[in-house]
UniProtKB/TrEMBL annotation:
Its cofactor is FAD. GO terms for biological process: glutamate biosynthetic process. In the N-terminal section; belongs to the NADH:flavin oxidoreductase/NADH oxidase family. Pfam families: Fer4_20, Glu_synthase, Pyr_redox_2. This is NADPH-dependent glutamate synthase beta chain. Keywords: FAD, Flavoprotein. SUPFAM superfamilies: alpha-helical ferredoxin, FMN-linked oxidoreductases, Nucleotide-binding domain. Residues 665-741 form the Glutamate synthase domain. It comes from the Bacteria. It comes from Rhodoblastus acidophilus. Residues 113-409 form the FAD/NAD(P)-binding domain. One of its GO terms (molecular function) is glutamate synthase activity. Residues 23-97 form the Dihydroprymidine dehydrogenase domain.
């Protein structure tokens, strides 16, 4: 199914790259933010484009720049070396610069159906935007006087300024005029579920978990005890009460960290203590927030559990016991037990209980929708016990992070849209991963640049509730963006190591947690359908086996392999010939002729290029006569094969296709041909023959097999034509038995041509640049070929052999006779 606002089928990727594998940071982000692209755009100074990439799936981008828990950063590959890329801080830098004024064109509703969403927090706002962008009317009800949910009411200003939240909300509402916002409209009071179901086609419950849990010990309802959620709501509402000198926060999560730091900023407070019942390795607070609390002077006490609260001298005596930790439970958290005889009192003036949140709704309970302190919600389709009533966010699945709530908003919107559009069985929702194919940063210092955290201000700000962390300056943001490995660019082929790279890294990482090697191995060995049943094998399905896996390693960077080539007495500087330019504009053809001579190669074609001072291999058909100035004459074999007539000293050869191979080789052996060109495209001699279609790579191993069977492997050199693009492609054909290769379209593109319906168009090409550009391409291709050979332990590119290769597909294995990676032999 295809549902708006997702403009593509969720089973495919919008990028159009068939083998695109999202990088670890993108996979770790619940909403699939295109991290690598926006980081690359920041480095390139393209801030508006970076802002588009950030906000594409994230309606609360500004909020996330300040307080996202950034699951992308631990997933960053660079985290295991000198530190993760500062992804969250870079996001904030972009939003701080441009977010306030950033607006997209409004998308007005064009459908009659309406959806009611209760709760304008992260989940509700995200779902509202998605549904409105699909063309539906949305009534968004919020119990408070301002929208934003816990992002606005639960996170203090020093971590998240309220104007940042408002900027994000304004951006959503300006883009989606179909959203009608109703404030001061709590469910059960001004808003009734039955009425909403009558007036709307679907209802989404995103009421959040705004109730704080009690400690569950005697005295926890005393006058000097307040839950963390209520405390933060009041602070965010503008209250600045005078508190006792000593405040104790009980808990270890995000609310506890926000509450302790907020308390420290209030008048009257001299000391704040956080008491947590487990150890420092188990505390759920994020390391960044925990470090900030400590830096501001908050004291953290571990392995302490309150057992009772008693009034004492106008304050509170917290009766405590020390705890001992046991084995992990079903939720992965270690159980704890109270240590007998470890009793002590912790005196203070105020206790803030930050031990969890709950969702409370009498209205929903009366409809049988509550399951304890949460709404009964099916994770499979976000549905509840009532038809066309959905739920998302903390009220549905318990307290989570901001970005998890937005993920649930996206997911709920997907299933709401399916219901509105009458899709009974929509495809299971998954986060759509997309890439903008941003060029990789070309920063020479990218390896050496150290991570740099955004400046921490703490309590030094003149306004105690002003931002506790500053933004990067432009120079720092540029440098930090350059640190990205750009794992997203490791795509574009069916290389197994790309598709399975994360499991490979998990198995290879010794410092990682316990890994079930047997299960991981079984998962990789599971039989799967062959994804490449149709079509011929391609160069991308053929790879080299490096020397460090086969033999003594020879440093590939010490010196280049020799690449000089001799073809039937013709001495060439490289095993790469040029073809295709005889119909190009004369100025382009002349420039190519000079380059062919200067680079020490040869030209293959029906006519010589103007002023060609290099060997020319002439292509002829049937009864065509050989040009006396040609160094070699090559007859295209159609049916019967006969070597062409030639002058004394002129080389003679044949051009064989898949259909004429046997006849051509028989003739070449019988009449002692000087060379044979294997035409994998079947169209060599036509204009830009490579455009005719994919080459038949099996032609080369077939030719080698025929010659080997006749005991004539060295009878004459074999030249390959068809599909060559790069030095790696050339090296693969040399390893399969060719002595040289021919490029036409690749060389034409290098010289400035553009693909057109009739072949290549040089209308926009610069004749002065054509020669140097072609020379650079030939040099790069030869160097790449040399590097591939060097990595295989060779000192000469002509020493490459089939044993240096592996195939990556069954069809390539069958076509080339090269064993597939992971197999010992061809079955």
């Amino acid at each position: 199914m295809t549902c708006k606002p997702f403009s593509v089928d969720l089973s495919q990727d919008e990028s159009g790259l068939p083998h695109y594998q999202p990088p670890p940071c993108q996979v770790a982000c619940p909403i699939g933010t295109d991290v690598a692209s926006y980081v690359g755009l920041i480095w390139d100074g393209k801030m508006p484009e970076a802002l588009e990439a950030i906000t594409a799936t994230n309606p609360l981008s500004g909020v996330c720049g300040y307080v996202c828990d950034a699951p992308c950063e631990p997933a960053c590959r660079r985290a295991s070396s000198d530190g993760a890329v500062a992804i969250r801080a870079l996001k904030r830098h972009v939003l701080d610069k441009l977010g306030h004024d950033y607006r997209l064109a409004p998308v007005r509703p064009d459908k009659a159906k309406k959806v009611a969403i209760i709760g304008a927090g992260p989940a509700g706002l995200t779902a509202a935007q998605d549904i409105a962008l699909a063309g539906y009317h949305v009534d968004l009800y919020e119990a408070h006087s301002k929208p934003g949910g816990m992002a606005l009411w639960g996170i203090p200003d020093f971590r998240l300024p309220q104007d940042v939240v408002q900027d994000d909300i304004d951006r959503v509402l300006s883009r989606c005029p179909g959203i009608a916002l109703h404030l001061d409209s709590p469910l059960g009071d001004k808003v009734k579920l039955d009425e909403l179901r009558e007036t709307h086609d679907a209802v989404l419950l995103a009421i959040g978990a705004s109730g704080g849990k009690k400690l569950g010990v005697s005295g926890d309802d005393g006058a000097h005890v307040i839950d963390g959620v209520t405390f933060l709501n009041r602070i965010n509402g503008g209250e600045r009460p005078i508190l006792p000198k000593k405040v104790v926060v009980i808990g270890g999560g995000d609310v506890a960290m926000d509450a302790c730091r907020a308390a420290l900023r209030l008048p009257g407070v001299e000391k704040v203590i956080v008491a947590y019942r487990r150890g420092p390795d188990e505390i759920p607070a994020r390391a960044h927030e925990l470090q900030a609390a400590k830096a501001e002077g908050v004291e953290i006490l571990y392995n302490i559990a309150p057992v009772a609260l008693e009034d004492k001298n106008g304050g509170v005596a917290i009766k405590c016991k020390k705890t001992a930790l046991g084995a992990p439970g079903a939720d992965g958290r270690r159980a704890f037990s109270l240590v007998e005889g470890s009793d002590f009192d912790l005196d203070c003036g105020l206790v803030i209980a930050a031990v969890g949140q709950k969702s409370v709704s009498l209205e929903l309970a009366q409809h049988g929708l509550m399951d304890g302190d949460k709404i009964f919600t099916r994770a499979s389709d976000m549905g509840t016990r009532l038809p066309n009533v959905f739920a998302a966010g903390d009220a549905a699945f318990g307290s989570s992070t901001l970005v998890q709530a937005m993920f649930q908003g996206h997911k709920a919107a997907y299933y709401v849209l399916a219901a509105l559009e009458g899709v009974a069985h929509p495809a299971p929702y998954r986060t759509p991963y997309r890439t903008r194919n941003v060029p990789v940063a070309q920063d020479p210092l990218w390896e050496k640049l150290a991570p740099k955290h955004a400046p921490f201000l703490g309590l030094d700000n003149s306004d105690p509730f002003g931002p506790a962390e500053a933004d990067y300056d432009d120079k720092t943001a540029h440098e930090q963006a350059a640190r990205c490995y750009r794992c997203d660019t490791e795509t574009g082929s069916s290389d197994y190591s790309v598709k399975a790279r994360e499991s490979i890294f998990a198995l290879a990482r010794p410092e990682a947690g316990p890994v079930d090697f047997a299960a991981a191995t079984r998962a990789k060995l599971a039989k799967r359908p062959d994804p490449q049943l149709a079509g011929p094998a391609t160069f991308d399905e053929l790879v080299f086996l490096p020397a460090n896996l086969t033999r003594l390693v020879i440093d590939p960077y010490r010196e280049a392999c020799k690449s000089a080539t001799v073809l039937a007495g013709m001495k060439l500087a490289q095993p790469l010939l040029v073809a295709g330019f005889e119909d190009a504009p004369e100025t382009i053809a002349a420039a190519v002729a000079r380059t062919v001579a200067e680079t020490g190669t040869a030209y293959l074609g029906r006519r010589p290029l103007p002023g060609l001072g290099a060997p020319w291999l002439q292509i002829i058909d049937g009864a065509e006569a050989a040009d006396p100035y040609a160094n070699a004459v090559l007859l295209r074999v159609r049916e019967a094969a006969v070597l062409p007539e030639a002058r004394p000293g002129q080389l003679r050869g044949l051009i064989a296709t898949a259909a004429t191979l046997e006849a051509a080789l028989a003739c070449a052996l019988a009449e002692k041909a000087d060379l044979v060109v294997l035409d994998g495209s079947g169209h060599l001699g036509d204009a830009w023959a490579d455009l005719a279609g994919a080459p038949d790579l099996s032609l080369l191993p077939r030719a080698v097999d025929i010659l080997r069977a006749a005991g004539q492997e060295e009878a004459f050199p074999l030249v390959w034509f068809g599909g060559l693009r790069s030095g790696s492609d050339l090296a693969k054909m040399l390893a399969l038995g060719a002595n040289a290769g021919v490029v036409d379209v690749a060389s034409g593109l290098a010289a400035g041509g553009a693909i057109a319906p009739h072949g290549l168009d040089f209308a926009a090409a610069d004749a002065e640049e054509a020669g140097p550009r072609l020379a650079a391409y030939l040099k790069a291709a030869t160097s790449e070929c040399s590097m591939m050979a060097r990595c295989c332990g060779k000192t000469n590119v002509h020493n490459l052999e089939p044993e240096d290769l592996r195939t990556l597909s069954l069809r390539a294995q069958a076509a080339l006779g090269i064993v597939m990676a992971g197999r010992k032999k061809i079955a």
